[in-house]
Each structure stands twice: as C-alpha cells, then as structure tokens.
Amino acid sequence: MRDAHERAVLGAAIQRELPTLGICRGLQLLNVQQGGTLHQDVPTHARYDVPPDHEAHEVRFVDGTRLHRLYGPTASVNTLHHQTIDRLGSGLSVGAVADDGTVEAIELQGKPVLAVQWHPEMMRGRAGDPAFAWLIQAAST
Q1: Mean pLDDT taken over the chain
Q2: How many whole angstroms separate alpha carbon 85 and alpha carbon 58?
Q3: Does the annotation count 17 as an active-site position?
Q4: DSSP string over 79-118
Q5: pLDDT tens readout for residues 124-141
Q6: Given 3-state DSSP classes, what are the helix, strand and coil percentages for the chain, each rounded to the nearest 5?
Q7: Residue 55, strand partner residues
Q8: Confidence (pLDDT) at 82
Q9: Helix (H) or strand (E) holding 119
Q10: For the chain, domain boundaries
C-alpha cells in the first residue's frame, strides 16, 4: 500500500511539474516509477555502524547536470541504504556516482525533479545543502 500511495503522489507531482526532491527511498522510487530496476541488497552501502552524519564516501557529479551546477565536482556523503539503482529508468539521467560505480543521484530530464541516494537532512551541513536551496527556490517561483 505504501508503494502504491507514494507512486501515485510522485506521478501526480511529475505530471504537474512540481519541484520534487527524492532522498534515498525517494531516488529508488523515482527510478522504479520510470521503469528502472534496483539491486535489492547492497550491504556495503548500509553503514549503520557509524553516526548518520558520517561522511562515508565521495560522490562525483556528472558535468552538465543540474546537480553538478549545485554541488560542484564532488561531495562527501553518508550512506544509509541497502538498495541501489540497477537499470536506470526512462527519462532519467545520472547526476552523480560513487567510486564503486553506484548511481548516487539522478535527474528527470525536462522536469524539476532531482533525487539523491544519501541523506542530506542528516549531514552536518544540512542547513546549507544545495539540494534544499534548489528545492526552496524552485518551489517559490
């Protein structure tokens, strides 16, 4: 029931072109919504052995993406997920990857929709996180 509800809400947001930021499960949901698939269990990315604001690894942003414009070339992020993108969904582009090749951020082409695999709301710099600033700016226009 949760999946069906969240997919309906996400579908309506996309259709109405509402600025949307997916975080962790939100990235996974967006990918599945667009016909993509997930690796079901990736324990190396489920770092529950450290505090949630622990910078577990670096991500590299893809040149030319909105995420690259927001964050720059790299960012250190936490990792609190056990599922990752396998096959990318239709209309999505990769915005960032980890050193091991894991897709860490995606964008929906032509729509105000971004999604990140990490939890910026749990990071030490959350108040100034570029994704939150983007969402606030995009929603206020």
Answers
A1: 92
A2: 17
A3: no
A4: -B-S-EESSPPTTEEEEEEETTS-EEEEEETTSSEEEESS
A5: 988 999 999 999 999 998
A6: 35, 25, 40
A7: none
A8: 75
A9: none
A10: 2-139
Query: What is the CATH code of the structural domain delimited by 2-139?
Result: 3.40.50.880
What is the β-pairing status of strands 74-77 and 84-85?
unpaired
What is the reported pTM?
0.91
Residue 89, amino acid: G
119 is catalytic: yes
- What angle do helix axes 2-15 and 25-33 make, rounded to 10 degrees? 70
5, 6, 24, 104: which is the annotated catalytic residue? 24
What 3-state class would DSSP assign to 46?
strand
Catalytic entry in 39, 54, 82, 119: 119
- Maximal C-alpha separation, the chain: 41
Residue 45 has pLDDT above 80, yes or no: no
pLDDT of the residue at 101: 93
Which pLDDT belongs to residue 44?
Answer: 64
Please say if 6 is a catalytic residue. no
> 121 near 24, Cβ under 8 Å?
no
Supply 25's token pair. 């499960």
